[in-house]
Amino acid sequence: MRPIPWWALASAVAAPILLVGGWTIAASQQPDGYNPISDTISSLAAQGATDRGVMTTALAGLGACYVITAAGLRPARFAGRLVLACGGLATLLVAAFPQPVRGNSIAHSTAAAVAFSALAAWPVFAARPRPCAPLLTHFASGAATVFMLGLVLSFVLELHGGHRGLAERAAAGMEALWPLAVVVTSEFMIAPAPQT
Q1: CA pair distance 11, 67, nearest whole angstrom
Q2: Has residue 14 been placed in a domain?
Q3: Which of 28, 38, 51, 179 is least enclosed by beta carbons within 10 angstroms?
């Protein structure tokens, strides 16, 4: 039996592709005033954005990928898988509650805060005392959580600054890449159990 089912590996690969592909394609559809350094990912899916369905679909797919990856990440502790799945569900809510044309949506902001927090915190909950995968050690998982929380904090501090888009992309990108790194190292560095 493989440590990671093929569908979890596929969802882990798809997550960063959906995120980066979504923001790249959606940004290319915006008027000349859009700036990915200062403008957020959410503004690409906001009401009134040009072709907002591109980023909305990418965010929904990303959330689904997190839930699917969590379901198949068997080497991780259940608590970490649950937190990762919660981050995925919150990402689905980010897609479901877009920002309005003007102002802010409390539902969107709350869902985004939960998603960013859960996706940064899940590694520390997934760690095992005697892991069979290198990225599930307490050290690696703790370092990943601290690093990702630092990226989220830099985004929060930049919310009203000129680099909020860049800060958000750094945090979201790392949060999409970490499950892939854990899945790949778990899949290829754990010896399958012998057949009986």
Answers
A1: 9
A2: yes
A3: 28
Give the whole-angstrom CA distance, residue 93 versus residue 108.
7
CA distances from 135 to 6, 9, 102, 105, 119 (A): 19, 15, 42, 36, 15
**Size of the chain, expressed as the number of residues it contains:** 196
Q: Tell me if 195 is assigned to some domain.
A: no
Number of domains in the chain: 1
Residue 1 has pLDDT above 60, yes or no: no
CA distance 113 to 6: 30
Nearest to 81 by CA among 96, 102, 67: 67
Which residue in 78, 57, 81 sits closest to 68, CA to CA? Answer: 81
Per-residue pLDDT tens for 29-50? 998 888 999 999 999 999 989 9
- Tens-place pLDDT, residues 134-171: 999 999 999 999 999 999 999 999 988 899 999 999 99
Residue 108 lies in a domain: yes
- Structural domain including 179 reads 6-189
Contact of 51 with 26, CB cutoff 8 Å? yes
CB 91 within 8 A of CB 118: no
How distant, in Å, are the alpha carbons of 16, 41, 55, 94, 117 from that of 71?
18, 26, 24, 21, 19
